[in-house]
Design brief:
about 30% strand, 11 strands, alpha+beta, Chorismate lyase, 8 helices, 2 domains, Arc Repressor Mutant, subunit A, 6-stranded antiparallel beta sheet, about 250 residues, 3-stranded antiparallel beta sheet
Length: about 250
C-alpha cells in the first residue's frame, strides 16, 4: 500500500505530525486505505514526507489510539477493521437483534450452561431467595468470525426451565424466552463502566490482558416488574463503540 502524494505544509503553525495524521485519516475515511492494508514503515514515510521518524511515530500512535490503525508485533501497522456501533443500549433490544438489524449474522459459542444456586448478591438482583436455582449461561458472540463479546446470563430457574434444553448456538436467548416461557423483556436497568481485559477475557476474545473492555451490567424485567435476567457483558473496546442519544424531555414538551 502506498500513500498518495499529499504534501505537508511546513510554513503553517499546524504541527507536521497532525497534518500527516489527518492525511492518513482522510484516506481511511474515503476508502483509499482499506481495512487490512499495511502502512509503510516509518523510514519510508519519513523519506516520503521529508520529516523525522519521531514525527511519523507520533502521527501513527495517535491513529492507533483512535482505533483507526493497529500494530502487530513483528508484522507492522495495519488499517483497522471499522468498529461496530453498539446502539442497543438506547433501545430495548439485545446485542443479537441489534447486530441483525445492522445486517450481520451473529454466531454464538456456548461455553457453559448449568444450574447453580444463587448467592446473596444474585438473589437480591433477581428478587429470589439465596440458594434458589438459577440457570447460568456463558457465551461468546462472534461477528464476521471475530469474537466480540462475552455474556454471562443468570436466569431464575422457576421462570424458564425450558431454556436448559434449548440450543442457543444459533438464536437469541430472549427470543427463546419469549417463545418458550412467555417472558418478554419490558424494561432494563443498565450500568456501563470501563474495564480492562483479564486472563479469561484474553483467552475468549483473543486480545491481550489489560486491553480496554466495555463492561455492562444489566437487569431485565417483565411488564409485571419481575426480574427475568441479570447479565454481564464484556465487549472488546478495540472493536466497538457505544452510541447513546440524549435529549431534553422538557425541551421536547416546550
Amino acid at each position: 500500500m502506498e500513500l498518495n502524494d499529499n504534501k505537508l505544509d511546513k510554513d503553517t503553525p499546524v504541527p507536521l505530525y497532525y497534518q500527516l495524521k489527518n492525511i492518513i485519516k482522510e484516506q481511511i475515511e474515503n476508502g483509499y486505505l482499506k481495512p487490512g492494508d499495511t502502512v509503510p514503515p516509518e523510514r519510508i514515510l519519513a523519506e516520503s514526507y521529508e520529516v523525522s521518524r519521531p514525527t511519523i511515530r507520533k502521527a501513527l500512535s495517535e491513529l492507533v489510539n483512535e482505533g483507526l490503525l493497529n500494530r502487530e508485533k513483528g508484522k507492522g501497522t495495519f488499517v483497522s477493521e471499522p468498529n461496530f456501533e453498539f446502539s442497543f443500549v438506547q433501545k430495548l433490544m439485545t446485542f443479537y437483534d441489534d447486530m441483525v438489524t445492522k445486517g450481520f449474522e451473529p454466531k454464538t459459542r456456548v461455553i457453559t450452561k448449568k444450574l447453580k444456586e444463587a448467592n446473596e448478591d444474585l438473589a437480591g438482583k433477581l428478587s429470589i431467595s439465596a440458594g434458589n436455582k438459577i440457570i447460568f449461561i456463558k457465551r461468546v458472540r462472534f461477528i464476521k468470525g471475530e469474537p466480540i463479546v462475552i455474556v454471562n446470563n443468570h436466569l431464575p430457574y422457576h421462570l424458564c426451565q425450558e431454556i436448559m434444553s434449548t440450543n442457543l448456538s444459533d438464536k437469541s436467548l430472549y427470543n427463546s424466552m419469549a417463545e418458550k416461557c412467555n417472558l418478554v423483556n419490558y424494561r432494563a436497568e443498565m450500568i456501563i463502566r470501563p474495564a480492562v481485559a483479564n486472563h479469561f477475557d484474553s483467552k475468549l476474545l483473543g486480545i491481550d490482558t489489560g486491553e480496554p473492555i466495555h463492561h455492562i451490567k444489566t437487569i431485565s424485567y417483565t411488564e409485571d416488574n419481575i426480574p427475568m435476567d441479570y447479565f454481564e457483558s464484556r465487549f472488546r473496546g478495540d472493536r466497538g463503540e457505544i452510541k447513546v442519544n440524549l435529549c431534553d424531555r422538557e425541551a421536547e414538551n416546550r
